[in-house]
Design a protein that fits this description.
Layout lengths: L1 E3 L2 H16 L7 H16 L2 E5 L9 E8 L2 E9 L8 H15 L4 E7 L3 H9 L3 E6 L4 E7 L2
Parallel strand pairs: 4-5
Antiparallel strand pairs: 1-2, 2-3, 3-4, 5-7, 6-7
Length: 148
């Protein structure tokens, strides 16, 4: 099931998913990663986080964190535990985030993917995202999608 994040119940798992699934793919310097780690609780407090879990009371095995800026949906983070991959949970989380954004008047979406993360790049491209530019300073691709 997909539900909204419950901070006291979910944040330990979400932070672990970030640490294990996202941080190793980053090309940012350790000093910047340390600053980002310290800022994660505040960052999760802004925008929205949806989690994937077996049932309402269970711990999540995946999440998507996103923000709306005017007509833009910005996908901040998406991570799925390895055991839950290839079961469409990422697709379902993205679908919910995009439908939420559409209901709020968003016309486009953006996401950044670390260079070398070919699995994520392929995933987003299958969802209709296209590479808009490469950000050399962050070693990541910026992908965009227009909603019809």
């Amino acid at each position: 099931m997909i539900r909204y994040r419950r901070p006291k119940q979910d944040d330990t798992v979400i932070l672990d998913l970030i640490e294990r699934q996202l941080v190793p793919l980053s090309h940012l310097p350790q000093k910047v990663i340390s600053q980002l780690r310290a800022d994660l609780p505040r960052r999760l407090g802004h925008g929205m986080t949806l989690v994937a879990c077996p049932d309402y009371e269970s711990e999540p095995f995946g999440f998507v964190h996103f923000m709306l800026h005017g007509d833009l949906l910005f996908i901040d983070m998406l991570a799925i535990a390895p055991a839950a991959r290839r079961k469409r949970w990422g697709n379902m989380l993205m679908d919910r985030a995009e439908r939420f954004a559409l209901s709020r008047g968003c016309q486009r979406a953006k996401v950044a993917v670390d260079a070398g993360n070919d699995v994520a790049l392929s995933f987003y491209q299958k969802l209709g995202y296209r590479v808009a530019r490469y950000q050399a300073q962050n070693c990541c691709y910026e992908l965009e999608k227009r909603f019809s």
